[in-house]
TrEMBL record:
Taxonomic source organism: Rhizobium azibense
Protein name from the UniProt record: LysR family glycine cleavage system transcriptional activator
Keywords: DNA-binding, Transcription, Transcription regulation
InterPro entries associated with the record: LysR-type_TF_proteobact-type, LysR_HTH_N, LysR_subst-bd, WH-like_DNA-bd_sf, WH_DNA-bd_sf
SUPFAM superfamilies: Periplasmic binding protein-like II, Winged helix' DNA-binding domain
HTH lysR-type domain boundaries: 10-67
GO biological process: DNA-templated transcription
PANTHER family: HTH-TYPE TRANSCRIPTIONAL REGULATOR (PTHR30537), HTH-TYPE TRANSCRIPTIONAL REGULATOR DSDC (PTHR30537:SF32)
Any GO MF annotation of the entry: DNA-binding transcription factor activity
Length: 295
């Protein structure tokens, strides 16, 4: 076989195609297995033959057959790919045994994931998951729950989990004793609950009103995000929340949603690198997460 000067390795994408054609002795069957068109398979074989400088298959009575060189080459390539598949499978088993690391906003973890977490382990007794809170870079975790707007990044899948609508809430007791509250502009006369994360949410909901409201309203600041809904239930002021996170409190009348016509519509997303789907544990977690958030 002739080799092109300066190159010792063939086009690597052609090798699995060549292996499949050799196993099936059929362009069409190989194309079906690889989810390619027959034309794409034929071009890969032609590219490989051009690199090697010889034909690998010949047509015999409307069927294909190995040439002598093609049969020798296929035997070696098939064995090598089998070795690669075996090594990859062994490595994947090791990866399956390590914990999945999942990033999540603290309040979402507390309100949406923890109440349903028992069902994850009931479905998947051997799964191990470690949750981390706060902003997480997608490269440092197996997946992360993101709130806001969709992220478009090459190689990263961004799947909608559910609504994350922003709305102010307060307790009935606060509303009874508070100053007039007929429009969002009246918030400048009220007590607002905030943390660093919830300050951004207030800015998102208030929009152009933010500077004036922030200049005149009284604030109770929380060091840790997630305490605002509890403080609101206790009647300490008005919190800005993701409506999904206080469904129970709203249903039970502990909180009242304000200015629902001004609700800011956003979503929770699950972000992960596409290769994570090779992991059975990750796929199981992803399916469970979508079911749990949908309930």
């Amino acid at each position: 076989m002739a080799q092109r000067p300066g190159r010792s390795l063939p086009p690597m994408t052609s090798l699995p195609v060549f292996d499949a054609v050799g196993r099936h002795m059929s362009i069409v069957k190989a194309a079906n297995e690889l989810c390619l068109t027959a034309g794409a398979v034929s071009r890969q074989i032609q590219n490989l033959e051009a690199f090697l400088g010889c034909e690998l298959f010949e047509r015999v009575h409307r069927r294909i057959a190995f040439t002598p060189a093609g049969e020798v080459y296929w035997t070696k390539i098939h064995a090598s790919l089998d070795t690669i598949r075996g090594v990859t499978s062994d490595l994947a088993v090791g990866i399956e045994r390590r914990p999945l690391v999942i990033g999540s906003p603290r309040v979402f973890l507390q309100k949406c994931i923890m109440p349903a977490l028992g069902t994850l382990y009931a479905r998947n007794p051997d799964i191990v998951v470690k949750f981390v809170t706060g902003a997480q870079d997608i490269d440092s975790v197996d997946g992360t729950i993101h709130v806001g707007e969709a992220i478009d990044r090459k190689g990263v899948l961004c799947e909608i989990l559910g609504d994350a609508d922003l709305t102010p809430v307060c307790s009935p007791s606060y509303l009874r004793r508070a100053p007039k509250l007929e429009t969002p502009d009246d918030l400048e006369h009220h007590t607002l609950l905030r943390s660093a994360e919830f300050t951004r949410n207030w800015e998102r909901w208030l929009g152009p009103r933010s500077p004036r409201i922030f200049a005149h309203a009284r604030f109770i600041d929380m060091e840790s995000s997630g305490l605002e809904p509890t403080a609101a239930v206790e009647g300490l002021g008005i919190a800005i929340v993701r409506q999904r996170l206080v469904k129970r409190e709203l249903a039970e009348g502990q909180l009242i949603a304000l200015f629902e016509k001004n609700m800011v519509h956003e979503h929770y997303f699950f972000l992960f690198a596409e290769p994570k789907l090779r992991s059975h544990s990750f796929r199981s977690f992803r399916t469970w997460l979508r079911d749990a958030v949908a309930e």
